[in-house]
Design a protein that fits this description.
Layout (H helix, E strand, L loop, with lengths): L14 H13 L5 H13 L3 H4 L7 E4 L2 E6 L2 E4 L2 H14 L24 H10 L4 H15 L2 H8 L3 H11 L4 H6 L3
Antiparallel strand pairs: 1-2, 2-3
Helix pairs in contact: 1-2, 2-4, 2-6, 7-8
Length: 183
């Protein structure tokens, strides 16, 4: 569901905090594997948790030494560390979380053949000091610095109007972003 035009994002990370959290997701072996995978996907690709929990092994492809994740019909190359984490997560899930006739979820729920609940995942990420909303907002702003809104709309699977609103919010100098960002 799309937010009303008056409701703009208000929670962000500083660039340093965003990068530090991404480093934690990729390197901190004391974090649970599912937290590392979900946290990295949010921070790198601004994916909402509702989309992350729907990812299955069918979204992952290996070709010529690279691993690709397909989101919204667009494959993109994963960084090698994240690709290994995702492979490990899929292996870790094991047969207890999978029925042969159902998709093999990257983040399976407690019932075989069902994905994890995104609200529970958000709570888990917060518990590990990796809040998803601020990270996604920050990743979206970073993406808008490099890509036009229509590309963002297509890649991230958001409505074009939403991408335009984000681009307007981001502004050329990011003045609204800096004003809305919490210290």
């Amino acid at each position: 569901m799309e937010h009303p035009a008056t409701q703009l994002p208000g929670t962000f990370h500083t660039e340093e905090d965003h990068q530090e959290e991404l480093r934690r997701c990729l390197n901190d072996t004391s974090l649970p594997l599912d937290v590392r995978v979900a946290g990295a996907l949010v921070r790198l690709y601004a994916l909402p948790l509702t989309r992350i929990v729907e990812l299955t092994d069918a979204h992952l492809h290996h070709n010529q030494g690279h691993t690709y994740l397909t989101v919204n019909r667009h494959p993109f190359v994963l960084p090698p560390k994240l690709a290994r984490l995702i492979d490990d997560q899929l292996q870790h899930n094991g047969p207890r979380h999978h029925r042969p006739e159902s998709p093999r979820y990257l983040l399976p729920g407690p019932h075989p053949g069902r994905p994890r609940n995104p609200l529970g995942l958000a709570d888990t990420l917060r518990h590990h000091e990796l809040p998803a909303r601020a990270a996604r907002n920050t990743a979206m702003m970073e993406a808008l610095a490099d890509l036009p809104p229509m590309i963002i709309s297509d890649l991230f699977g958001i409505q074009p109007r939403t991408a335009e609103r984000w681009a307007t919010f981001a502004g050329g100098a990011w003045s609204d972003y800096l004003a809305a960002r919490k210290p």
